[in-house]
Design goal:
Elements (H helix, E strand, L loop, with lengths): L3 E8 L5 E16 L8 E14 L2 H13 L4 H26 L8 E18 L2 E9 L2 H8 L3 E3 L2 H6 L8 H9 L6 E6 L2 E7 L5 E9 L2 H10 L9 H4 L5 H7 L15 H4 L1 H15 L3 H23 L8 E5 L6 H10 L5 E4 L10 H14 L7 H4 L9 E3 L2
Helix pairs in contact: 2-3, 6-11, 8-11, 11-12
């Protein structure tokens, strides 16, 4: 391995736009923790610039509706792949301009794309059993528009190896926090919440999606309060938890499944929200603030339960490092601490010099970097894959 300058691109379940950041990544010492080639790579990074490239409101609305309903024409899917590629390329151009860099300063781009559908559990299609995951944002378009090689389509190799294709972030978490040799939970609360557990030897020993993160809370705020999200948890702080409804929400079969497991809008998207609204909110005439408070408790309690039910018996963490938009929801963090089953210290990514907002952009930069050098970068114990594989496909400019 050698130092490279790498751009990371990500568009998550919130679908508000593209997080783009550029990093200088370089190996530390031998490049491997404890000098072992099968261990987590020892890498350090410096962020050189970042930007958020928002989707146009009409585009975002159509994209969310397409993914929420799960239906589209073949022509729409074909053109959407190319259109997203153009938008991701535009994000790179803006990032370079704002960072004072040119394409000649950058060695590589790692692009996650936009998840359109995730089906990692095998199903029968026309007599053939298959599992798959689909992220759009054509990497050939990005490479040719920017003149920079692109690594993309990271999830499919893990799914092909029998894994869930997620959470991929466990690799980055082990790189970033594994060298401290302290049992750590790294929690990202985005649209979906996911937890990585790293033992005191620096190994990622578990990682899974605990369930909804901000997704349902945001939807309630958009419908009832005409705002995109619950800023600082102020709306939830005015409400009360409707315990019977919370119990009903937590009865969903997903929360009883043992990891590895992943989820998304397929289970907890608009359709799910509308169903629980009809089944409980309208029937019981719950106050709007109580809806937001109960959904906030739903997120917090299912995160804590996921740790308590599936991790705590084998690895008891000493610290919890928070990331994602939910980190800034004070009511959510307060509830999370109250539900957590053991005493822990709680910190944010920023306390370790890592930008919460651009953590996933960093993830895809790290994945692209290691893929470029042929390093296995999935974590089978976390994804359920049968073996380590090198994620992503390289498209040259």
């Amino acid at each position: 391995m050698k130092p490279l300058t790498v751009i990371g691109l990500n568009s998550g379940t919130s679908m508000d736009g593209i997080d783009a950041a550029v990093f200088r990544i370089e190996p530390v010492g031998s490049g491997h923790v404890n000098g072992s080639e099968d261990s987590t790579p020892a890498l350090k990074f410096t962020m050189l610039g970042s930007t958020l490239y928002p989707f146009e409101s009409r585009f975002r609305e159509r994209l969310m509706k397409l993914v929420g309903k799960g239906t589209a024409t073949l022509e729409e899917m074909c053109l959407l792949n190319a259109s997203l590629g153009e938008i991701f390329a535009d994000a790179v151009v803006r990032l370079l301009k704002e960072s004072g860099l040119t394409k000649r300063d950058v060695d590589l781009i790692g692009s996650h794309g936009q998840t359109i559908w995730h089906c990692p559990d095998a199903k029968s299609l026309w007599g053939t059993s298959a599992a798959g995951t689909l992220q759009l944002g054509e990497p050939s378009v990005i490479a040719l528009r920017t003149g920079i090689p692109v690594v993309a389509d990271f999830r499919t190799a893990d799914v092909a190896a029998g894994g869930q294709g997620a959470p991929l972030v466990s690799f980055a978490d082990a790189v970033l926090f594994g060298q401290d040799h302290k049992a750590t939970g790294v929690l990202n609360i985005g649209g979906i919440a996911n937890l990585t557990v790293i033992d005191d030897h620096g190994k990622a020993v578990a990682a899974f999606d605990t369930g909804p993160g901000n997704m349902l809370i945001d939807r309630a705020c958009q419908l009832f309060f005409n705002c995109e999200y619950d800023e600082d948890g102020k709306i939830a702080s005015r409400g009360r938890i409707v315990e019977p409804w919370l119990k009903e929400l937590k009865s969903h079969a997903y929360f009883q499944r043992r990891p590895p497991k992943t989820t998304g809008r397929e289970l907890f998207g608009f359709g799910y929200f509308d169903r629980v609204l009809v089944r409980y909110i309208e029937r019981e005439r719950v106050a709007k603030e109580d809806v937001v408070k109960t959904l906030t408790a739903f997120t917090a309690s299912t995160i804590a339960d996921g740790y308590g039910d599936f991790v705590m018996q084998t690895t008891k963490i000493e610290r919890l490092v928070l990331g994602g938009g939910g980190t800034f929801n004070d009511e959510l963090v307060k509830l999370l601490k109250s539900y957590w089953p053991n005493e822990i210290s709680v910190a944010r990514h920023e306390d370790y010099g890592i930008s919460t907002k651009y953590k996933e952009a960093l993830l895809f930069a790290l994945l692209a970097y290691t893929t470029y050098f042929g390093i296995h970068n999935n974590v089978p114990i976390c994804t359920g894959a049968t073996r380590p594989v090198c994620l992503g496909k390289l498209v040259r400019a």
